[in-house]
Every structure is written in structure tokens, then in C-alpha cells.
């Protein structure tokens, strides 16, 4: 089993630059305009919550995270994610969790008001889709990191401590 420092170090490196005000990633197929509203008097304003959810989804796709489901309950301020993984080792799971949590925290830094990400890892389709683990990330933890109240290692540790293997 890898040392805690090694796991935290690799996980924490994914948060480098999270406190900066990042711009959402763009891809060649990213929409740059919205369709005109049907009514000439109505104005169409993109929903910021949905925009962040879409940006988070594009980030996960760009990182080759195999999304099974990504939803948000704006009223409860919770994002739910289910993704497939063939990772079983602590190192690989930690790296995947770091990538996903880093993407969530990046959106929080950009103004997403979601308070929590609840993630479920399921076995890759060939392995029957059984639940492998669950974990969560809290935006309040990122806020503490962004204020300088906790280190990147502490932020990583808080996320990893929520990991529950099935």
C-alpha cells in the first residue's frame, strides 16, 4: 500500500491553481452562442448553475472520465455523479478522485454555488457495473483552502477520508 504522503502528494498536485479564477474549458464543439428565443420580447439568459454543470461535464469528458450519470439538484445544491472505473488500487482510485474533485473545485472557484459533489464509482461495464466506492467533496472545504485556512494536503485528505468502498 502506498504511503499517505505519496497519495496526498499526487492528489494535492491536482489542486494546483484551483484558487485562481479559471475560465471554463473550451472545446471545438463547445457552444458559443445560444439559439434565439421563440418570442421576440423574451430574453434568454443562460442558467449559471446549468452552465457550470455543463462545464464540469466537459472537463470530465476531457479527462476521459467514463460518465454514467451527472445530475444536479439546484434546490438542494448537490451535484450527483456516477462514473465507471476499472481502478482497484488505492493509487489509481486516489488519482481518479483527485481529477474529479479538482474539476468540481475548479467550477466552485469560478462561481458555481453547488455545495457538495456526491460521487459513486461503478465497475466498468465488463465488470457488471457494480458499485465500487462512494465519496464526496464539499465546496466549504474548497472555500477554506481558497482562504488559506487549510493546505492542499488537508483539502485532499478531507475528500479521501469520505471514500467508502463497497
UniProtKB/TrEMBL annotation:
Pfam families: DUF8159 (PF26490). Residues 17-49 are annotated as: Disordered. Residues 53-165 form the DUF8159 domain. This is DUF8159 domain-containing protein. It comes from Haloferax gibbonsii. The lineage of its organism: Archaea, Methanobacteriati, Methanobacteriota, Stenosarchaea group, Halobacteria.
Amino acid at each position: 500500500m502506498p504511503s499517505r504522503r505519496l497519495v496526498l502528494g499526487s492528489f494535492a498536485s491536482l489542486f494546483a491553481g484551483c484558487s485562481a479564477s479559471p475560465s471554463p474549458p473550451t472545446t471545438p464543439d463547445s457552444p458559443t452562442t445560444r439559439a434565439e428565443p421563440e418570442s421576440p420580447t423574451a430574453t434568454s439568459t443562460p442558467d449559471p448553475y446549468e452552465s457550470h454543470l455543463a462545464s464540469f461535464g466537459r472537463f470530465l469528458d476531457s479527462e476521459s472520465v467514463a460518465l454514467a450519470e451527472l445530475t444536479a439538484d439546484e434546490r438542494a445544491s448537490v451535484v450527483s455523479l456516477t462514473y465507471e472505473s476499472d481502478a482497484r488500487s488505492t493509487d489509481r482510485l486516489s488519482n481518479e478522485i483527485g481529477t474529479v474533485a479538482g474539476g468540481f473545485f475548479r467550477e466552485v472557484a469560478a462561481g458555481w454555488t453547488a455545495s457538495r459533489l456526491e460521487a459513486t464509482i461503478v465497475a466498468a461495464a465488463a465488470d457488471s457495473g457494480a458499485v465500487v466506492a462512494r465519496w464526496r467533496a464539499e465546496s466549504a472545504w474548497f472555500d477554506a483552502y481558497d482562504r488559506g485556512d487549510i493546505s492542499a494536503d488537508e483539502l485532499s485528505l478531507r475528500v479521501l477520508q469520505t471514500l467508502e468502498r463497497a
